[in-house]
Amino acid sequence: MEEFKRVFGIKFIMVFTVTVLLNIGLFVYSSSEGKSMSDIRQETHYRQWIIGELSDMQPEEALEIADIQSDSVIKRKYDELESEEQTVYSRQLNKIKEQLEYIIKYPEDIKNIQNNADTLKSFSIFADKNSFTYNNIQKTAKDFKRVEGVQLYLTDNKAVSGFVTYYYIYYLALILNVFVLYELFGERENGMWCIVHTSKSGRAKLAFNRTMIITASAFIITGILFFTTFLTSFILYKTASINAPIQNIESFSRFSLPMSQLQYIIYDFLYSFCAVLTLTAIVWMAFVFIRHRNIAVTVIAVFMGVEMFLYQKIQPQSVYGIFKQINLIRLLKVNDIISTYANRGKGTFVVSESNIMLTVTTVLFIAACAGGILGTVYMRPEQKKSVIARIADKIWEMYQHLLSGYSITAKEFHKLLITGRGLIVIGVLAILAVYFVRYGQMTFSDGTKELDNIYITNGGKEYHYITDMVNERLNDYQCAVKDAQDCMVRYNAGEATLEEVTESSSTVSLYAVKLGRVSEFMKKQEYLQEINEKYGVDGYMISDRGYEEIFGKYSIIREAVLFLALAAAIILIVAENIVLEYRTGMNYIINASRHGRCWIQIHRALTGVMLTIILFCFIYGMDMYTMYTMYGMPYLEAPLMSLTFMEGCNPSFTIGQWIIIRLVKRFVVILQIYIATYVITNVVMVVRKEKTY
Questions:
Q1: Predicted TM-score (pTM) above 0.90
Q2: 114, 157, 291, 537: most buried by Cβ count inside 10 Å?
């Protein structure tokens, strides 16, 4: 119990909370696919409305009603919407039509699997009863017979389909379990290993307790990450049809077990728990046999990096395909393995890949636990240091000698970054920042890029070229319409031919297309005239697109995750720095120092402020630079209200000023978080110290 309390203390709770929030951010970010939250809500609204109208019908009837060309409630709803909303509505309607087509074809596909099995057995090359091919055909037909009676129907599967295709849960669960193991092996560095090794029954009991701890850790961590991710998916998409068959999702068309979506999620969790537990046990064994924790972490990171590289780069058809099949990373692709029907074997022995995975994880877990237990019992503390260890100690001694001559501020930085392992937190923060900033880049169409180029070359404060172009095309269109009307009058009077009417109609269509290409400029021009009359603002003719990605509605998720990651990094580094002093007893030395504890605390606080400033500048500097390279930041001197999504803001602000103001606001909040963390952690540690005495 004491071992459990030691590992799962305040530090673990903080790291675990940050990881859960990070996981939620990753899920929302990856699910958004560059869309804003309002776009997701709009898609969800239309999708659920369409499904609500069609769900009581037979699939064939619903598919006919879903045709936007037919006179139906679906068509009437489409006609009521604006052009941009119609695009979103049509996209959701097409996805629902695809789902209906899949539902209609599913029973026939299952029957075809049965019929194909009978057909293939009639060929002599597949008729050998001792061959793997024959037995695989037999097993396939038998397995899919179980889902013959599954009735599919139209439901909103977005919450479940989005959840089961999200894989970061497993990576984050494994990283958290490595953190738990790192804390478990603290005796390797604090001198307790010799005491544990010589205690009566201590080693065997410790090994057993740690087996229980890593099992509980894998279950709790995986379970909470699983639950919070599914809850987030449920909230994000407003619904989860958990009682519908899992085969309702098209990617599960070859899943051969009759399960509801809720049952599959539980099934998925159990397999995921086995995979995470197995890899955790392997990592535990590595920690046992590698004497130094930091070296163990390095070896594990390098090994998993190589495994990931091999898994991603090797093609299944390659001569090296075996390294992809037996890869440990493949164990984390749980849904791919258990949702895809595939068999392996030889001769009359045929087994599914999901059962192979379960068997492999069980064997590896038992072997890793046996290795970890035996290593814990029989490995002795290091008696003699190796040459490398002695060289490392000598280098460390020289470094400490040099450090002793530096200022108190430099020593505080050393404690924050090296002793408190702040560099690791900063490294993780940097990786996350790069991922979130680069991952969500919006790719614009060639037509959109052409419009943006016109904004840059001919827009801005003086945009006469764009105004003239819009007026010219509008005039051409109006003239074409007038000519077409005149031609129709002459045709009715018998003075024009049908060919002339057709030609005039084609001319109208041609000019209508040309006018449509500049409709964005027309709307922008009307908007600029409106804000000039309403607010007295002389707006610039500029594109909204890039700035919407930088600080508009499409930036909300990216900015929220970056802010939370930075705040979490500062909290972890600062809290660990203060806790470290109390854990090592350095607070007594500080309190008795010649200059007094206030002098030390002032330097410590200022060092933390400096680190906060450095991290803030690094994260948001990288964010702004990346946004600039992706989308550009033209016309920073333009009034902020020139952007249509900023109507109603302070008319005196420019775009550049607004970007700076937003950064200053974030910095103030981050600084407040640092101060709150510093004060609260100090108070908590003082209270805990007083309770100890």
A1: no
A2: 157
